[in-house]
Amino acid sequence: MAGSERTVVWFRRDLRIDDNPALAAAARDGVVLPVFIWCPADEGQFYPGRCSRWWLKQSLPHLSQSLESLGCPLVLIRAESTLEALLRCIDSVGATRLVYNHLYDPVSLVRDDKIKKELSALGISIQSFNGDLLYEPWEIYDDSGLAFTTFNMYWEKCMELPIDISPSLAPWKLVPAPGLESVRSCSVDDLGLESSKDEESSNALLRRAWSPGWRNAEKMLEEFVSHGLLEYSKHGMKVEGATTSLLSPYLHFGEVSVRKVYQLVRMQQIKWENEGTSEAEESIHFFMRSIGLREYSRYLCFNFPFTHEKSLLGNLKHYPWKVDEERFKSWRQGMTGYPLVDAGMRELWATGWTHNRIRVIISSFAVKFLLIPWTWGMKYFWDVLLDADLESDILGWQYISGSLPDGHELSRLDNPEVQGQKYDPDGVYVRTWIPELARMPTEWIHHPWDAPSCILEVAGVELGFNYPKPIVDLHIARECLDDSISTMWQLDTAEKLAELDGEVVEDNLSNIKTFDIPKVVLRETSPCALPIDQRVPHASSKDHNLKSKVLKASNRSSICVDMIRSSKMEATSSVANSPVSRKRSFCETAFHVPSYSSSAEVHSHIQDHGGSLVGPSRYLLQEAGRNCVDEVEDSSTADSGSSISRQRKAA
């Protein structure tokens, strides 16, 4: 033992023994008090959902058992204030130091900064470590010292820098701090992570499918590298079955370190190169790129901490989102009338999990077809996903909604029918999760509204009765999306005129009330069970009125507010310009980001005004002839099918 310093080790989302820099430093320097604090009040609107809390409940005993075998049990505390709980622990054992590993989401950044200031003022030494990333966010900037706003530029810069992949050695023994017995610890059940018997019964399906814990994470990683990595690039076209790495929940809770993932993949790459296995190159490339996407999600949250509630691009502040609670409920319940979308939403509801490709499709449908605010969708994903990861959710929803410089074009509208034929050609996935369509022939499974009446009758399908008609016609959705974009640009111009008169125009998203979606409780574990209704957010229409002076200053086009629910859709689509490559996201929730122009050019058009970025988006750059978008290497989020287009309307 190098010293006798008494140290409190604060576990958060780093629930592992191996390659845990904070734990290794504390064990090396003296006696330790490992502690995990559950403080619901600190989570605010991002209180973890049922599935995420179930995972945490299984992982904590696993970690506690490992720590106890090393000589020091894990102290579990449920508290009203994290700061007060830490102070009690420090006072109980006479600790002089607090160590922890970094977190980068907006909630943790604020909390950690407050705790660091308070404890430092009391003379407590604070030391934090990088236990989550290959590169710290403050290490990567362009030549002008500005943060990158496009993934390709960011990742190219990262690849130019050396990577320290030597993991921190796991301690072989821990010496408990004197006075540990005076610290009041509760059981994992007393933390209240499963709030009701209904939640416990709903989690039975999760227990059969997943094995949380850091040792299980290492087994899962080794299994994937040995047997799944070689075919990784080919699995992006399959939405049914276990075709992904399945590592995202383990990474979110820090049960395996990204350094170890990177190290094992590189070792396997060298082995394949020596064996002459050339087909592995594409899979390695996509997998390493998806690691970069996870890094980039933390990078964005750290450098632009407002992105959980506001778009990165300033012009999106004027986008006329449609605050339609009924449509939002239909989307959540998997009752939109589009089979692939509905299957994805029902699987998500039932299991807390769905393939990354499906996540792209259902989120794109919400913001492009239904014009639902992307912040609603992001919050819903946070509430129901097993691997809910705020940074990755932010990156994904901002990308899909066109809120990033290199995100999906705001005008892009992908055809769910074509996507279904592409990613579920035999209809296996749809039949699994939509029993109403189980007897539909494959020819009609992704567009039952076009099927002859005799086919529907034989299949037992009555549209509008046991399966809904399409919630919106493809071409009506195209018209409404174009009108909304036109309105956005007119309001953007009007704002500039209003600024000359000293007026300030608020972000449309700021007028949309925040809400908490009730946690999902399943009373059936069958994948064929229909979803149970949920409450929807309350929002009054007056909260969404745009500034009257801005409206007067802009001869805005009318927005389609009444979409046709039962219109018969024509099977028309045009092939999107962006090619599709077969890649999936490593973190399962991150979305692929295509390339864009230099960071310096983007920053020259973006100005930070009180937490929101104001300035022209990629569409103004296109008009100026400066769109430098490369070919999209889509995997998780580029072209998911054919897009529906029409002649561009004049502003």
TrEMBL record:
Query: What is the protein name stated in its UniProt record?
Result: Cryptochrome 2
**Where is the site Electron transfer via tryptophanyl radical?**
W321, W374, W397
Q: Which InterPro entries match?
A: Crypto/Photolyase_FAD-like_sf, Crypto/Photolyase_N_sf, Cryptochr/Photolyase_FAD-bd, Cryptochrome/DNA_photolyase_1, Cryptochrome_pln, DNA_photolyase_1_CS_C, DNA_photolyase_N, Rossmann-like_a/b/a_fold
Instruction: Keywords in alphabetical order, please.
Output: Chromophore, FAD, Flavoprotein
**Originating gene:** cry2
Region (Disordered) location: 630-651
UniProt remark on cofactor binding: Binds 1 FAD per subunit.
> Which family is it part of?
Belongs to the DNA photolyase class-1 family.
Q: Which GO terms describe its biological process?
A: circadian regulation of gene expression; entrainment of circadian clock by photoperiod; nucleobase-containing compound metabolic process; response to stress
* GO-annotated cellular components: cytoplasm; nucleus
Q: Which residues form the Photolyase/cryptochrome alpha/beta domain?
A: 5-134
What's the source species for this entry? Oryza sativa
Q: Where does FAD bind?
A: Y232, T244, S245, L246, L247, S248, F287, D387, A388, D389
Q: Which cofactor does it need?
A: (6R)-5,10-methylene-5,6,7,8-tetrahydrofolate; FAD
**Where exactly are the transmembrane stretches of this chain?**
none
Q: Which GO MF terms are attached to this record?
A: blue light photoreceptor activity; deoxyribodipyrimidine photo-lyase activity; DNA binding; FAD binding
